[in-house]
């Protein structure tokens, strides 16, 4: 029996729940492996080979390779784990967050300093938009990588 999840209507947010945790387990474990210098070196030397050593889905691997954090989150990635990829690439969290919104690091920083993202355009499921497009039948929207 499926659980009723009213929180899936949170506009612009993917809630990291037990389902997302199960979906992203190997993706998040891969990210945690990047805490060790020798693993970061192996990953940077041949990203595809390193990813292929993990039982991740091809969609998850492509999300990592393209540095599309929105795609990774849709596939169960947790931003706190995904931050290890950015750190491996020498990127700040602001650069990573900006990439998720289609903004530059400067644009993202200015938006946050000025009070955060506008609620304009945010919708809940059924209100002319989708708060959780990747968890609904219509599919997901592509993210923007930082490469």
Overview features:
147 residues, mainly alpha, single chain, Protocatechuate 4,5-dioxygenase, Chain A, flat, 49% helix
Give a short overview:
The chain is mostly helical and 147 residues long.
What do these coordinates show?
This protein has 9 helices and no strands. The N and C termini lie far apart (42 Å). Helix 2 runs parallel beside helix 7 (79-88) and helix 8 (93-101) crosses helix 9 (105-113). By secondary structure, the chain is mainly α. The protein has a domain at 15-88: Protocatechuate 4,5-dioxygenase, Chain A (Orthogonal Bundle).
Task: Give a topology summary.
Layout: H1 18-23, H2 25-33, H3 37-45, H4 47-52, H5 58-65, H6 69-74, H7 79-88, H8 93-101, H9 105-113
Helix pairs in contact: 2-7, 8-9
Report how far apart the termini are: 42 Å
Largest sheet: none
Q: What sort of overall outline do the alpha carbons produce when their principal axes are compared? A: flat
Structural class: mainly alpha
The arrangement of helices and strands along the chain is HHHHHHHHH
CATH class of the domain at 15-88: Mainly Alpha
CATH topology-level fold name of the domain at 15-88: Protocatechuate 4,5-dioxygenase, Chain A
CATH architecture of the domain at 15-88: Orthogonal Bundle
Rg, alpha carbons = 16 Å
Average residue pLDDT: 83
Quickly count the helices.
9
Helix content: 40-55%
At the fourth CATH level, what is the homologous superfamily of the domain at 15-88?
Dioxygenase LigAB, LigA subunit
Unreliable stretches: 128-143
Per DSSP, what share of the residues sits in E-state strands of 2 or more residues? under 5%
Total beta strand runs: 0
């Amino acid at each position: 029996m499926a659980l009723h999840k009213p929180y899936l209507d949170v506009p612009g947010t993917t809630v990291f729940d037990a389902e997302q945790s199960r979906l992203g387990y190997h993706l998040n474990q891969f990210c945690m492996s990047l805490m060790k210098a020798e693993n970061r070196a192996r990953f940077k030397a041949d990203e595809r080979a390193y990813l292929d050593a993990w039982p991740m889905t091809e969609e998850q691997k492509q999300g990592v390779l393209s540095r599309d954090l929105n795609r990774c989150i849709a596939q169960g990635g947790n931003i706190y784990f995904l931050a290890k990829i950015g750190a491996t690439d020498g990127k700040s969290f602001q650069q990573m967050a900006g990439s998720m919104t289609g903004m530059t690091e400067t644009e993202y920083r200015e938006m946050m300093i000025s009070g955060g993202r506008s609620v304009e355009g945010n919708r809940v499921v059924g209100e002319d938009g989708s708060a959780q497009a990747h968890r609904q039948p219509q599919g997901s929207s592509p993210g923007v990588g930082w490469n």
